[in-house]
């Protein structure tokens, strides 16, 4: 397996794993068990996404598209001052 990306946090890692799986890319996360040691270990580079070598190029393209995504244009939210949105 080849390490192709270092997610910023566990939430991003899980989201990317799901996205890759939905595209047929076999991926796994490494380093998630080290997150509890932050403070004793350097905080950067603990998480990594691994994919099969023959799927690395496709996975990198998908992650690049994810990183380049922009919010969809739409109307500004209604004035909801003092309201709880659920």
TrEMBL record:
The record ties this protein, via InterPro entries, to: DUF2007
Tell me where in this chain the DUF2007 domain is found.
1-65
The protein, known as: Putative signal transducing protein
- Organism, by scientific name, is Pseudomonas pohangensis
Phylogenetic lineage:
Bacteria, Pseudomonadati, Pseudomonadota, Gammaproteobacteria, Pseudomonadales
């Amino acid at each position: 397996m080849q390490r192709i990306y270092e997610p910023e946090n566990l939430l991003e890692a899980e989201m990317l794993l799901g996205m890759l799986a939905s595209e047929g890319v076999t991926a796994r996360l490494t380093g998630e068990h080290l997150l509890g040691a932050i403070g004793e270990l350097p905080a950067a580079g603990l998480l990594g996404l691994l994919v099969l070598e023959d799927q690395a190029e496709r996975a990198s393209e998908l992650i690049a598209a994810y990183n380049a995504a922009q919010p969809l244009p739409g109307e500004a939210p209604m004035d909801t001052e003092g309201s709880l949105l659920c």
